[in-house]
Specification:
It contains 4 helices and no strands. The longest helix is centred in the C-terminal third of the chain and has 84 residues.
Amino acid sequence: MLDAGIADLPRLSHVLSQTRHFELLPLSTLQTAQQGVIDELAPEVERLISRVEAYVERLEVRERGLRARAELQEGRLGDGVRTMGGRSGATMARARQGSAGGREAKVQQQQVVGAREELKAKQLRQKKERLSYAVERLQMQAQQTQRKLRMSMAAQESRRGEMDDEDEDELAR
């Protein structure tokens, strides 16, 4: 009698070790979890986007200011040449002798300032690009997470449909 009760035990242990068991969740639980992930990610993405937009605006304002300053300095250099054009020959010769060293120093100083401004502008452009790439990466991650959630929901729905079909088959028997 004992032998008849345990004769099927090796087969059952083999079947149970090979079969994967899944925990089935109700659709409402899955949807709640998905909505929780979306609710968690959406504000963070929006916050990052707003920070990047504000920073880009500041960079644009700074760029406009630098451009205006450069135009002003170009205008000043042009005005200095024009005012010298109206002087007499002797006055110009004295002005050249007295201010030749000063002019060269000013030009060199302006070149150094211009080079610094160009370097800063270049650094700001690079930083802007890095931030835009970071935002794009975060958006792609959010889209990927949403895709995974949709796929898991579709898989859950297909499993649920299969289970309903199995239940109908059992009821038909």
